[in-house]
Amino acid sequence: MGPQEPVTGRVVSSRLCTRGKSASFIRHVAIDIGDTPLAGRFRAGQSFGIVPPGEDERGRPHKLRLYSLASPSFGEDGAGRVISTTPKRLIAERTPQREGDDPEDHRLFLGTCSNYVCDLRAGDEVLVTGPAGKRFLLPAEPDKHDYLFLATGTGIAPFRGMALELMRGPGGPTSSRVEVVMGSPYTSDLLYDDLFSDLAAEHSNFAYHPVVSRERRDDGGPGEYVHGHLERRLDERFREMLESPRTLVYMCGLAGMQIGVFRMLGRHGLHGPYLKLHEQIADVDPADWTDDQIKRRVRHGPRCMLEVY
Ligand code: NAP
C-alpha cells in the first residue's frame, strides 16, 4: 500500500486542549487506526494526512492535508493503534488571492479541513494517510542526547508525542535532560499545559517553560518570544545545555521563531553544531546577520531539527 492511499480510521475522542478560555479553538483529536495497515507505523514527530470529504471549486475530490502527530510512537493507547493531532480552527476573512478577485469580498472564510477535523465527534469515520516525515524524529539512541524542544502555538504537537515517548515510554523515563519551551500569545492559549506541568513535577530532568508574548511576565517584565526567553535566561539556564555535545535542538511552529533562534545562537557563538552557514556569510559577524541573510544563507546543522511554516 502506498503512503498516500487513504484508510478509514475512527475518531475516539475530541477535546479542547487550550489551558483556559481562549479566542482560539484548538483541539486534541484521537483517531483509531488499529484495524488498518497503518497501525503501529507512526513515529513521534511525523505527520499524517487527512482527506476531507467533498470537492474543491473545480469539482475534484479534495486533496489530503497534513497534520502533525501529537502522539508518541506507541500511540495514545500504548500499542500504536490510536494516533492524535492538534487541529486549530481556521476562522478568517476572505482576501483577494489572484488578479481578478473581488477586492471587496471579505466574507467569512473557514477553509476546508481544519474545521472539518475539529467538528468530528467520537465514532465518526475519517480518511487517514501516512506516515510522512523522515528527519523530525527522536534519535536512534534517545538516552545519548539531551533535548531542547522549542514550539510556537500548535507547533507543540510533536513535542507532546516526543515528551510522552521519552518520559512515559515502555522502557521507563529517560535520564536525559528534556526542556520544553512553548510560546503562545496568552496564558489561556498554552496547549497541553497540564501534561507538561505534570511531567515537570514528576521528573527532575524535565523542565517546562511557558513563554507568553502578550502578557506581562510574573517578574513584571514584558511579554516575550521563545528566542527572547532563551536569550534572557541563557547564562542562568540554557548556555550550558546548548554547549553540551549531547544536546539536540528541535523547533516547530512559526517560521519567525527560526530566525530569532538562529540569530540568538549566532550572537552568542553557539551556532557551530546547530547551524550551517553559506560561504557568502561565513565572514559576517553573526551579530550583524540580517533577516534576509538568515533566511537565505543559514541552514540547520546536524543537531538542529526544524519543522516551521
Ligand atoms: P500563534 O498562537 O499565532 O503564535 C504562537 C506564538 O508565537 C505567539 O506568542 C506569537 O506571538 C509568537 N510569534 C509570532 N511571531 C514570532 C516570531 N517571529 N518569533 C517567535 N515567536 C513569534 O501560533 P499558531 O496559530 O498556533 O501557529 C503555529 C504555526 O505553526 C502555524 O503556522 C502552523 O502552520 C505551524 N505548525 C507547523 C507544524 C509543522 O511544521 N509540522 C506543526 C504544527 C504547527 P504574537 O502573536 O504575540 O506576535
Account of the protein in words:
The chain is an alpha/beta fold and 309 residues long. It folds into 2 domains: 7-132, Translation factors (Elongation Factor Tu (Ef-tu), domain 3); 142-308, Nucleotide-binding domain of ferredoxin-NADP reductase (FNR) module (Rossmann fold). It is 21% helix and 26% strand. It contains 7 helices and 15 strands. It has helices spanning 114-119, 157-168, 193-202, 226-232, 234-243, 255-267, 291-297, and strands at residues 7-16, 27-32, 47-51, 65-68, 82-85, 92-93, 108-109, 125-132, 146-152, 178-184, 206-212, 247-253, 275-277, 298-300, 304-308. The strands form 4 sheets. It has a 6-stranded antiparallel β-sheet, with no helix packed on it. Helix 4 packs across helix 5. The longest helix is centred in the C-terminal third of the chain and has 13 residues, at 255-267. The chain binds NADP nicotinamide-adenine-dinucleotide phosphate (NAP). NADP nicotinamide-adenine-dinucleotide phosphate (NAP) binds at residues 47, 68, 88, 152-155, 157, 183-185, 189, 213-214, 225-226, 252-254, 256-257, 260, 307-309.
